Amino acid sequence: xxxxxxxxxxxxxGFYLRPIMRYTPLSAATYRExxxxxxxxxxxxxxxxxxxxxxxxTSADGSMPFHQAADLFYLSGIDQEETVLLLxxxxxxxxxREILFVRETSPAxxxxxxxxxxxxxxxxxxxxxxxxxxxxxxxxxKRLMPQADALYLNxxxxxxxxxxxxxxxxxxxxxxxxxxxxxxxxxxxPTMHRIRSRKTTEEVAQIRNAVNITAKALRKxxxxxxxxxxxxxxxxxxxxxxxxxGSRGHAYTPIIASGRNACVLHYITNDAPCKDGDVVLxxxxxEYGGYASDLTRSIPVNGKFTPRQRDVYNAVLHVQKExxxxxxxxxxxxxxxxxxxxxxxxxxxxxxxxxxxEVAAQDPDRxxxxxxxxxxxxxxxxxxxxxxxxxxxxxTEGMVFTVEPGIYILEENLGIRIENNIVVTKDxxxxxxxxxxxxxxxxxxxxAQGKHVKV
Length: 455
Ligand code: GLY
Ligand code: MN
Ligand code: MN
Description:
binds glycine, Creatine Amidinohydrolase, Chain A, domain 1, binds manganese (II) ion, 455 residues, 2 domains, Creatine Amidinohydrolase, three-stranded antiparallel beta sheet, globular, six-stranded mixed beta sheet
């Protein structure tokens, strides 16, 4: 390391300026396309502001790993804290039509935290020519607000959002509204939900990358599973496989739930032994380049399903296959979920879990199948595992969904869910996990072979 008379000077700028990315990012052209989609939906004179997330504190001087705000990432590809994006397509000066603000680095930051993006790197990643330091954001806003007719502010309008902590975006939005109380304010979220739900080609490819790593982890686990293995040991095998393939880890907290634990839908303690004779439900998916995958497989701990486990498994598999066929352009998700409920009902009657006559007389608003299948069948998948999307409009080509029916029978210590990820195509769907085993025979065979095969 070259010596410097100034101890705070960057000793070797080449080292600190090295772009560090463990994943291959989407192209700048894709981010341009994403911004064009947003701009098109904005009213004339609109100025949109998007913020990154905060680095969340834990306690003492600890912090959580940084997790970028999905909307900011979707529009820019910038995975760094203190980033702001302005979109102002009607700005008088073409240089003001899109401006990206990134955190300015310093010798001290370089030494303690490592490289931050240079302006040139931020341009290369995002395709945005005008990159400035975040410290100049306030001055730029002051200059541009008089030109703007309306402010487009973003917020979390996810159907199930529940967050007691104020985000950086909410904080900055409040500041802006207080400073410019006479500007009309419009919501960016409906447009974000619309454009993010219809994936661009490169986004699907990135989800495929995530899916492929998740599939490798599944194959590893099929060989690894045996009676006595702890659920967290399975989790560790999966984590290892994810990280060594360039993922930063799990897209959500994994569920490794053996026996009765599988009946706890959000079981994440993963601290019980996998017992001989039990089925273990494993719901895991890696993130890659910010995109999520979301797989569930339920496998026999000892490598062989009992006849009853096999029947329940095949019932779930039947529902999954039938449900998948229904996810087509033009379908409404509410209708789809109702139809899947009917298919599940038939299977539960066959399994002796529901009575046909009672089902015929049930309150349609409180169908009996919910006793054994209490969650939805599908959700949007993308940058967020439960991605944003349009729940009240027809499904269109390019949407990505999970299909994940399950049957949970507490009195039998058995919970089975099978989950795949599908892309809706012009006339049907493409199952991203189609090469991953899900038939009973395939799973049993792979588990038997796996004991001898190095994965
Ligand atoms: N892993 C969360 C879900 O399947 O929706
Ligand atoms: Mn899942
Ligand atoms: Mn899911």
